[in-house]
Design goal:
Strand content of chain A: 15-25%
CATH superfamily of the largest domain in chain A: Metal-dependent hydrolases
Low-confidence stretches of chain A: none
Largest sheet of chain A: 9 strands, mixed
Mean pLDDT of chain A: 97
Strand content of chain B: 5-15%
Radius of gyration of chain B: 20 Å
Strand order of the largest sheet of chain B: 7-6-5-8-9
Shape of chain A: globular
CATH architecture of the largest domain in chain B: 3-Layer(aba) Sandwich
CATH topology of the largest domain in chain B: Rossmann fold
Largest interface: A-B, 23 and 26 residues
Oligomer: heterodimer
CATH topology of the largest domain in chain A: TIM Barrel
Distance between the termini of chain A: 27 Å
Radius of gyration of chain A: 21 Å
Number of domains of chain B: 2
CATH class of the largest domain in chain B: Alpha Beta
Mean pLDDT of chain B: 90
CATH superfamily of the largest domain in chain B: Aspartate/ornithine carbamoyltransferase
Chain lengths: ~425, ~325
């Protein structure tokens, strides 16, 4: 017999079915036992003034393990995720070694089992992410891998990408692309434009991203495969996906929090904390990403959480690695910066990425009896200042240090367990 | 002012003040003993991550003429070779109690990063493709020496503007002092957003030369040939080089300038570099005076320039 363990009291429930008030009782089997007014349980989590939503799902997390545990581990990344309201994250495969075989994927999933977040893994499309030979996608799919990407780089060879799409179409998996034409972007370290010209830094043209979006839409038409575009950053990319969707194609895409909040002007201090790939773009691109999020062209918000140790981010701009933290600031930035209703913001963070990732059975679902208690409780009005030193990630490379934002996670429940409670990680 | 990082940061008045001050240091350089005690007790370190003979020598000469102690942090034989980070190197140097770091680095922006990690004054001696502010100051000084003022002048900058920190600094300096600038280059050697600069653009050197008061030739780097930016050096010389025939299109009083080192026969005909209107040697000479002014302004108290110097001169007479 399932026993109630706790009740989340007094919150505003926001899920795909709408907004309402009610208490949520969670049972010792990790499920939601009851939803309604005036419920009780042995333990009470105060949610007055807060939103209770399904936990967030990040389709784009760099956990650095194996290979760069000094920057992040699966455990520390998952803890940061819990602090950000996430109950499910997808590890990117650009580790050392790359996640391109069943052995490495199994290791990542095994380490994830102990973590305070449901850690899923993607796998590389090509062996070693080298873009030359297909990774054993069927074997990886049999392990439960649903997302394949060479993230950090795109598959450059057009014929190989065609084969990947054809092969993947038999496996019920998603091919995801980091869109960048390497030949055109080679040697670039920031968006190519007015600021790169002034700063004397070699640029990555927007067209380097757009060329691959264009190519993969054409390939998807050829192969009838579905394709997901990762971290789209340009006006042109968003427009192409909008047109492809209007034409009935099975394309999806994500945008990161930094691509709707920061522009390339930030690079003018030469602080590599603002170096990221795809790079921060222009104000027009930021506006395009925002409109794509508003009209549904962009399916979800992703973090592209990319931890780097302080010493690697203290190198010269053109030598420092690209990437910035994202898990612990995504909700606040979305609430602060996007002019969207709260259920739309939560949808972009929760049920829409959950559907994309194929985890909607456990994450992002409606807050009703019988569903898994993967939940986030956040105060949408609380203002706070981003402070790198208080983050749960092992790294500190947030571009938002000192920024005032609104909306803070209070509790995160993973399978009914409060893994983040009153602003503190519990494990 | 505690650092000299870029011309972009400076106002017209700042540049003019530096050039006025340079006059006084140019005078010192003509003395029998070209040395003043203005920076006695101050320590200046050259931190050059990129090979440079003339700029490093020019800065060291300037510092020595001001009686500063100079140290040369040679990257090729130092801990940097063993993998020491920029920040650690900077903090190591600072721990030795230095007053000024003169830095050159192949990466744009390194001087800005240094200012976040050290309290000492930082002088940018060239960062990547970005800026080379003392070169621009000495270029302005040289033009002023010849013409009195840059106001209303038309200056052509010819060559690889895209990869040139000299061009980026000169464009800002020349225009801030009232000149108009035309950059002359094939489109592949212009910055992607050349519209971000207050310049006119031309791809026809022969139409520009008759209209200019000075033509500034940039060094054409041979490695650009491997990046598909130009078909060949020969074609560059044929279309953009200051050949003997093209030099005749210049007005008689037009100045010919170059930051050095010269690729004779590539961007400039060998003879023209040595002609009367070429001020290339003046540029080098003025470099020491300008850098003395910069170091004095950043590190000196501003009061020791005359009295002790004159005493020194008298003592040595």
């Amino acid at each position: 017999m399932t026993a109630p363990t706790l009740v989340i009291k007094g919150g505003r429930l926001v899920d795909a079915t709408g907004v309402r008030t009610g208490d949520v009782v969670v049972g010792d089997d990790g499920s939601i036992l009851a939803v309604g007014p005036d419920l009780d349980a042995p333990r009470v989590l105060d949610a007055r003034g807060c939103v209770v939503s399904p936990g967030f799902v990040d389709v784009h997390t760099h956990l650095r393990e194996p290979g760069k545990e000094e920057a992040e581990t699966i455990e520390t990344g998952a803890r940061g995720a819990a602090a950000g309201g996430y109950t499910c994250i997808l590890a990117m495969p650009n580790t050392t070694p790359a996640i391109d075989s069943a052995g490495v994927a199994r290791e990542v999933l095994e380490l994830g089992r102990k973590a305070p977040c449901d850690v899923r893994t993607s796998a590389a499309i090509t062996v070693g992410r080298a873009g030359e030979q297909l990774a054993p996608m069927a074997e990886l799919a049999a392990l439960g891998v649903r997302f394949f990407t060479d993230d950090g780089t795109g598959v450059q060879d057009t014929r190989l990408m065609r084969r990947a799409m054809e092969y993947a179409s038999a496996l019920d998996v998603v091919l995801a692309q980091h869109c960048e034409d390497d030949a055109l972007a080679a040697g670039g370290h920031m968006h190519e434009g007015e600021w790169s010209s002034r700063l004397g830094i070699a640029g990555q043209p927007a067209e380097a991203e757009e060329l691959m979006v264009m190519r993969d839409i054409a390939l998807a038409r050829l192969t009838r495969a579905r394709i997901h575009f990762q971290h789209l950053s340009t006006d042109g990319s968003v427009a192409m996906v909008r047109a492809a969707k209007a034409g009935g194609m099975a394309v999806s895409c994500e945008a990161t929090t930094h691509h709707f909040t920061l522009t390339d002007e930030r690079c003018s201090t030469y602080d590599p904390v603002f170096k990221v790939n795809p790079p921060l773009r222009t104000a027009a691109d930021v506006a395009a990403v925002r409109s794509g999020l508003a009209d549904g062209t962009i399916d979800c918000i992703a973090t592209d959480h990319a931890p780097h140790t302080p010493d690697t981010k203290e190198q010269p701009f053109d030598e420092a690695p690209p990437g910035m933290l994202g898990l612990e600031t995504a909700l606040a930035l979305a609430l602060t910066e996007l002019d969207l209703a709260i259920e739309e913001v939560v949808g972009l963070l929760s049920w829409r990425p959950a559907q994309l990732l194929g985890v909607a059975d456990r994450h992002g679902g409606p807050i009703i009896e019988g569903r898994r208690a993967n939940l986030c409780v956040f105060d949408p009005e609380q203002e706070w200042t981003v402070d790198p030193s208080t983050m749960h990630s092992r790294s500190r490379n947030t571009p938002y240090a000192g920024r005032r934002v609104r909306g803070r996670v209070r509790h995160t429940l993973l399978e009914g367990e409060p893994v983040f409670l009153d602003g503190e990680a519990t494990r | 002012m505690t650092d000299l990082l870029s011309i972009t940061d400076l106002e017209r008045g700042d540049i003019e003040r530096l050039l006025d001050l340079t006059d006084r240091f140019a005078e010192i350089s003509t003395r029998q003993i070209p040395k003043v005690p203005a920076l006695r007790g101050k320590t200046v370190v050259s931190l050059f991550y990129e090979d440079s003979t003339r700029t490093r020598l020019s800065f060291e000469t300037a510092a020595k003429r001001l009686s500063a102690d100079t140290m040369n942090f040679s990257v090729s034989t130092s801990s940097v070779k063993k993998g020491e980070s920029l920040r650690d190197t900077a903090q190591t140097i600072e721990a030795m109690g230095i007053d000024c770091v003169i830095v050159r680095h192949k990466s744009s922006g390194v001087p800005w990063q240094l200012t976040r990690w050290v309290d000492a004054s930082v002088v940018n001696a060239g960062d990547g493709w970005h800026e080379h502010p003392t070169q621009a100051l000495l270029d302005c000084y040289t033009i002023r020496q010849q013409r009195g003022s840059l106001d209303g002048m038309h200056i052509a900058i010819v060559g690889d503007v895209k990869h040139s920190r000299v061009a980026r600094s000169d464009i800002w300096a020349f225009t801030k002092l009232g000149a108009t600038v035309t950059v002359v280059a094939p489109p592949t050697l212009l910055p992607p957003a050349v519209g971000a600069y207050p310049v006119q653009v031309s791809h026809d050197i022969e139409s520009v030369l008759p209209t200019v008061d000075a033509v500034y030739l940039l060094r054409m780097q041979r490695e650009r040939m491997t990046e598909a930016l130009l078909p060949s050096l020969r074609e560059y010389t044929a279309t953009y080089g200051l050949t003997r025939r093209r030099a005749e299109l210049l007005r008689d009083d037009a100045l010919v300038m170059h930051p050095g080192p010269i690729n004779r026969g590539v961007e400039i005909d060998p003879d023209i570099a040595d002609e009367q209107r070429s001020v290339i040697v003046d540029q080098v000479r003025n470099g020491v005076s300008v850098r003395m002014a910069v170091l004095f302004l950043l590190l000196g108290s501003g009061t020791e320039l005359h009295t002790p110097t004159d005493a020194l001169q008298e003592a040595s007479a």
